[in-house]
UniProtKB/TrEMBL annotation:
InterPro entries: Bact_Lucif_Oxidored (IPR050766), Luciferase-like_dom (IPR011251), Luciferase-like_sf (IPR036661). This is Monooxygenase. The keyword Metal-binding does not apply. One of its GO terms (cellular component) is cytosol. SUPFAM superfamilies: Bacterial luciferase-like. Residues 28-305 form the Luciferase-like domain. GO terms for molecular function: monooxygenase activity; oxidoreductase activity, acting on paired donors, with incorporation or reduction of molecular oxygen. Keywords: Monooxygenase, Oxidoreductase. It comes from the Bacteria.
């Protein structure tokens, strides 16, 4: 079985030149909350929200979205892929994990990330500093989930004898994830027993990343089956292949402007290496077609890399009516195929 998730970007209504009217904003939020509530009945495993800042999305505080959706649902797993750790004090991160695990009734999935360069740079933070801060906070999370009182002495954070409350409902902790784009990042996650998600790259490259994770976990004596691995892809689905291609072309155009802002990313160019410390967006990042065609492509890619989870970025950045139709079509016709794969 392949477990189908939503990876939710929550696109901005309006743009740099135009702020929508408050009533339009209120209606927009309500429609998305209704859509995410409907996703439970459509058979999605859960929703991973993303965290982005300073334009493009309304996902600056995804933990608030988790709390809102938790009050409307009963089964959906809810998480962030991932919380951008360098923005926060580790005590806040740990205590919000505990609080959200209770508010979701034990449905929380914990995901962390370093962040994207162009957003961090707006606050004067380099990727080097962001990685340092992220590594320190991860140490604190590891310690806090294991014991009641935590002390830490590091380059960016220092504190002693903190009780970080509440303790999580899921014990010893909620499932933990991190987003990776390299074999070395995958190895680090494996050593800590944390699940991984990745996308952008070709299935061949992702297989190499997942193989590195599996080998490192095996060496550490940690079980690392398909349930530890998630493949994330941008999906365009429609009643006909031609209609889906039109939606996919629009997604690709929107993605180009995003890629232009991120020094780690570049569009797929045959035989060209990725930028230093970065990665290439492969053509396989885009899964397009009718529900049956989309399901077949997902199954093929998940089998190729050994992933038990699929994170669907449905009609990335599209208007809400288009996104709603895609959820209905994917949930109604593609998910039953994935569930029995």
């Amino acid at each position: 079985m392949i477990k189908p998730w939503l990876f939710e970007f929550f696109p901005e209504l309006g743009d740099e030149a135009r702020d929508p009217a408050p009533a339009d904003m209120a209606g927009y939020f309500t429609r998305y909350l209704d859509l995410w509530t409907r996703d439970e009945a459509l058979g999605f495993e859960g929703i991973f929200f993303s965290e982005h800042h300073f334009g493009g999305s309304f996902s600056a505080s995804p933990n608030l979205l988790i709390s809102a959706v938790a009050m409307r649902t009963q089964r959906l797993r809810l998480g962030v892929m991932g919380v951008v750790l360098p923005y926060y004090h580790p005590a806040r991160v740990v205590e919000e994990i505990g609080l959200l695990d209770h508010l979701t009734g034990g449905r929380l999935e914990v995901g962390t990330a370093v962040g994207v360069p162009q957003e961090l740079a707006r606050l004067g933070m380099t990727m080097e500093e962001a990685r340092e801060r992220s590594d320190e906070i991860v140490e604190v999370i590891d310690a806090a989930l294991a014991k009641r009182v935590v002390s830490h002495q590091g380059k960016h954070f220092s504190f002693a004898n903190l009780r970080l409350l509440p303790r999580t409902l899921q014990q010893p902790s909620p499932p933990r994830w991190t987003a990776v784009v390299s074999a070395e990042s995958a190895r680090r996650a494996a050593r800590r027993g944390i699940k991984i998600s990745t996308g952008f790259n070709s299935t061949a490259t992702i297989r190499t990343i997942f193989d590195a994770y599996r080998a490192e976990a095996d060496a550490a004596g940690i079980a690392a089956g398909p349930d530890c691995l998630a493949l994330r892809r941008r999906v365009a689905v429609a009643a006909t292949a031609g209609e889906a291609q039109g939606y996919a072309a629009a997604v690709s155009e929107r993605l180009k402007s995003f890629v232009a802002q991120d020094s780690r990313l570049k569009q797929s160019v045959p035989d060209a290496p990725p930028p230093a410390g970065g990665f290439t967006i492969s053509d396989e990042e885009f899964i397009t077609g009718t529900p049956a065609e989309v399901a077949d492509q997902i199954i093929e890619q998940c089998r190729a890399v050994g992933a038990g989870h699929f994170l669907a970025v449905l009609h990335w950045g599209a208007p809400i009516d288009e996104v709603t139709a895609a959820h209905e079509l994917f949930g109604g016709k593609a998910i039953p195929i994935l569930r029995t794969a």
